[in-house]
């Protein structure tokens, strides 16, 4: 598939379900163009549209993997990317732990839902999350040197962190918003696809 | 005492105790047809976990309960299930089998056995315990 189609299908596969304006916002394309590409991807059996939203079919992942192998061959051969990527798994584990401590607090060895009544605790977790997002900067920049679309992750992280700083704490982990967790998760999946690796767990 | 069919990590404590027929979802297409069928809320969803990130649309569309055969409560899926407050039992194993999930060293037969035993069963999730989530025959 050609690169503009890849960019649309890639974002859809990362979001699992999305409409054209949502995809357009991430890849800086017009919603009308994305709409047209979704239609042609649907014709190719890579996308289905249900209730106004598009979803990737079973065939989407293998098709993306095949295109990524060609388009991102130079990224996969870049020693700087490889070195930075080597440190990502550790950062990712720390990030998931930080997210869990945002959602739940340890009370006498028992995990209970964080009611966000302890501002000092929440601030500490937010500071940790900001630091972990900061650790992705090098990797995002190295990827963006090959394909400029990766720099949108930086822009999105900045927007989410700025929102959190101004008190919009849904932007930490809400799956319905462009939260730090949403962006991080998409970046992780995108990274795996770009480098041609499988998710471990 | 109710019959516990399987148990695993409880992702978060909740008094919600969803009841439904277990549906095994093995691919994005399974999730799409379930959403299109309009019967999402009748089922407890069973997935392999770990790599099954395709479950997200089902969660946002109102899935009532989830069982995974691998993965940890700290994983992406665990985080999502807490956000949506969807009761979730992770890395579930059958109580009548000795087979257990081991990271990086689990035979296909382990997953096949769980899917075979649980798919189509009418169950209720018990997620009241801090550590263990239970799949109880309903």
TrEMBL record, chain A:
<protein>
    <recommendedName>
        <fullName>MarR family transcriptional regulator</fullName>
    </recommendedName>
</protein>
From TrEMBL, chain B:
<protein>
    <submittedName>
        <fullName>PEP-utilizing enzyme</fullName>
    </submittedName>
</protein>
<feature type="domain" description="PEP-utilising enzyme mobile">
    <location>
        <begin position="44"/>
        <end position="128"/>
    </location>
</feature>
<dbReference type="InterPro" id="IPR008279">
    <property type="entry name" value="PEP-util_enz_mobile_dom"/>
</dbReference>
<dbReference type="Pfam" id="PF00391">
    <property type="entry name" value="PEP-utilizers"/>
</dbReference>
<dbReference type="InterPro" id="IPR036637">
    <property type="entry name" value="Phosphohistidine_dom_sf"/>
</dbReference>
């Amino acid at each position: 598939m050609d690169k503009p189609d890849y960019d649309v299908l890639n974002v859809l596969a990362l979001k699992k379900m999305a409409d054209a304006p949502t995809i357009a916002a991430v890849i800086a394309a017009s919603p009308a163009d994305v709409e047209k590409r979704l239609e042609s991807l649907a014709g190719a059996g890579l996308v289905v549209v249900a209730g106004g939203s598009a979803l990737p079919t079973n065939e989407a992942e293998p098709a993306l993997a095949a295109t990524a192998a060609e388009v991102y061959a130079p990224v996969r051969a870049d020693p700087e990317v490889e070195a930075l990527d080597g440190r990502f798994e550790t950062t990712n584990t720390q990030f998931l732990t930080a997210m869990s401590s945002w959602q739940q607090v340890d009370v006498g060895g028992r995990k209970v839902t964080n009611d966000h009544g302890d501002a000092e605790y929440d601030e500490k977790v937010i500071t940790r999350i900001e630091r972990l997002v900061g650790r992705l900067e090098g990797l995002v920049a190295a990827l963006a040197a090959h394909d400029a679309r990766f720099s949108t992750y930086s822009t999105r992280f900045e927007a989410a962190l700025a929102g959190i700083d101004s008190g919009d704490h849904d932007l930490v982990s809400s799956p319905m918003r462009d939260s730090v967790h949403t962006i991080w998760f998409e970046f992780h999946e995108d990274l795996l696809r770009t480098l041609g690796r499988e998710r471990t767990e | 005492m109710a019959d516990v069919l399987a148990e695993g990590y409880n992702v978060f404590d909740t008094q919600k105790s969803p009841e439904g027929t277990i549906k095994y979802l093995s691919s994005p297409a399974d999730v799409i047809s379930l959403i299109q069928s309009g019967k999402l809320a009748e089922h407890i969803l069973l997935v392999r976990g770990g790599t099954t990130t395709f479950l997200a649309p089902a969660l946002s569309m109102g899935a009532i309960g989830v069982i995974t055969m691998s993965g940890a409560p700290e994983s992406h899926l665990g985080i999502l299930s807490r956000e949506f407050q969807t009761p979730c039992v992770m890395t579930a194993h059958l109580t009548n089998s000795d087979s257990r999930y081991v990271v990086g060293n689990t035979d296909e037969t382990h997953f096949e056995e769980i899917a075979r035993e649980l798919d189509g069963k009418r169950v209720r999730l018990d997620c009241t315990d801090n550590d263990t989530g239970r799949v109880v025959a309903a």
